Fold this protein.
Amino acid sequence: RYATMALFFVAGMMYGSWGVHVPTVRDRFHLNPAMLSFALLAVAVGSIVAMATNAKWIARVGTRRACLTGGLAMSFAGMLILVVPMYWMLLAVLAAFGAAMATLDVAMNAEASAVEEALARPIMSSLHGVFSVGGMAGAVVGGAVLSWGMAPAVHLLLAGGLCALVLVVACPAVLPHVPHHERPDAGTPRVNRWRSSALWALGGIALIALVAEGAMYDWATVYMRDVVLSTPAVASAAYAAFSGGMAAARFAGDAVRARFGAPQLIMASASLACAGMIGALLLPYPVAALTGFTLMGLGLANMMPVLFAAAARVEGVHAAEGLAHVAGLAYFGLLLGPVVIGGVTQMTSLPLGLSVVALCAALVAITGPRVLRWLKI
């Protein structure tokens, strides 16, 4: 369990460390908004391609080797981001960074599911909470060392080196292979993940949930500035309120799931997110909006941990393949969310655009528990 916690922490730390340097990348390569968007898209494309193609390899070589390989590749690619001299090389490195992070993401979640099953109690939400803490630590430390005058390239080299060191130390304690339900002696036939109605159902819920989450990351601050008319300092607190709510709820989610069950946790969480978004839209005042965004974070926090845990337990499908399927669809939702909100906002207004977030949360509250009960999870 501690080794798995270390994997989640360094994955979040490396992603947070990279996030600090998005403006650095823009300035170093003199990118206009379109070129910068294309660079960020390279990370997402690399992630989605890896999730579509690497699942069988992860299932074959085992969790330990996949975590070490994906993690070291992520560290090395992260160290190169501010070293490569040309834009096309940057795109290649960012795509490799996204692919390596996705490989580690699937492998460590498969490992987390196996550890959770061995412990016979939920731990997935707290592990995702550790990922959130790692992301915040990477961003905070990155901002601090840059303010002290450290060269951005040196910061990423140090972050990548630390990540690689932790991986080498932790991975010997990682399970070599994760248990799954496709063994012939279990009497359960192997199922092609692309034909699994259970995985498509879980993936559809994950996509809807991540549409809401992706929209919050990109549009919460804009709502505070343009609709609430708050100061820049207060507007920036919107992201902090949402992220803080997510981190807090993830550390509490395991106990709630153990006490009441996954369907009840999903229904309560999605309902809370829906209520928070509606409150923020109906009461466009700083305190009310920040409270609503905090409730959104609390509500959305446990969506992915619960859905990933369910995907790893679908009968007849290896845990890594089930996780890759659901996570891949979730990534599409993360990319789709800001675009959908932007399109609706362009045609109507930002409050109506963000009402899509409340609608997504309501859909998850209605459909999520039914799917989990159908799967007997």
Summary: The CA atoms of residues 184 and 190 lie 8 Å apart. Residues 181-187 have pLDDT under 50 and may be disordered. The radius of gyration is 20 Å. The longest helix spans residues 87-119.
